[in-house]
Design a protein that fits this description.
single chain; Nucleotidyltransferase, domain 5; 5 strands; 11 helices; 2 domains; globular; alpha/beta
Length: 225
């Protein structure tokens, strides 16, 4: 098993003058259906300064390194262990209309706008996964790091909060959209999802401008519910 994420980066940023640090991570970027979701998390100093911070949050890791059962089991512990956390969403239609980059900016801005009283993101330093800055100008400073969701505890917490929130939403929508196996694939590519598209076309939840539509030869008209 890979090492737990740490708060080494968070401690450095706080020591450098950041009033607080926000970790952000996205979920749903590669999906064929459903929203793009951004999680934002702020950890309290007690967790940041602890040597066992990840264990205090239930053994949190990058959400991709955890099973669905494990993510669900630690969600409440992660949420309760944050000083503040929030979710921002861009719908599948916004992903179509705006393009993925702008949709990611919109979802991040929405997450930061509702982070909570006392956490004005314009004063904060944000840690984001990857090299592309999707949070400026809503924060004072950005620390962009490849694999931040695996190495930084704040981003790992944000990734679990975003992933579980999105998965729950997709499961809730699945009964009304039975042909695409959304309860199991959560809108991501898989053989059953592909078969559903070929047999029934896209649902109102699908991103009809994505290249997979043309690659599969699927009509761009969304199927009625």
């Amino acid at each position: 098993m890979k090492p737990f994420p740490t708060t080494l980066v968070e401690r450095r940023l706080l020591a450098d003058g950041a009033p607080f640090v926000i970790g952000l991570d996205e979920v749903g970027k590669g999906a064929w259906a459903g929203p793009l979701v951004i999680g934002a998390a702020v950890l309290p100093r007690a967790v940041i300064d602890a040597e066992d911070g990840a264990q205090r949050l239930g053994g949190v890791r990058d959400s991709k390194q955890l099973s669905e059962k494990k993510r669900e089991s630690i969600f409440d512990l992660v949420a309760a262990g944050c000083a503040a956390w929030s979710i921002g969403v861009a719908s599948n239609r916004e992903c179509d209309e705006l393009g993925m980059n702008e949709a990611q900016r919109v979802a991040a801005a929405r997450a930061l706008a509702v982070l909570g009283d006392g956490f004005d993101s314009r004063r904060a330093t944000a840690i984001i996964d990857g090299k592309w800055d999707f949070v400026s100008p809503h924060v004072a400073r950005v620390e962009a790091m490849v694999k931040a969701d695996a190495s930084c505890l704040t981003v790992a917490a944000a990734s679990v909060l975003a992933k579980v929130t999105r998965d729950r939403a997709m499961r809730a929508l699945a009964d009304d959209h039975p042909h695409w196996s959304l309860a199991t694939n959560k809108g991501y590519p898989c053989p059953k999802h592909r078969r559903g598209l070929l047999e029934h076309g896209p649902s109102e939840l699908h991103r009809v401008s994505w290249a997979f539509m043309d690659n599969l030869g699927v009509p761009h008209t969304r199927a009625p519910r």
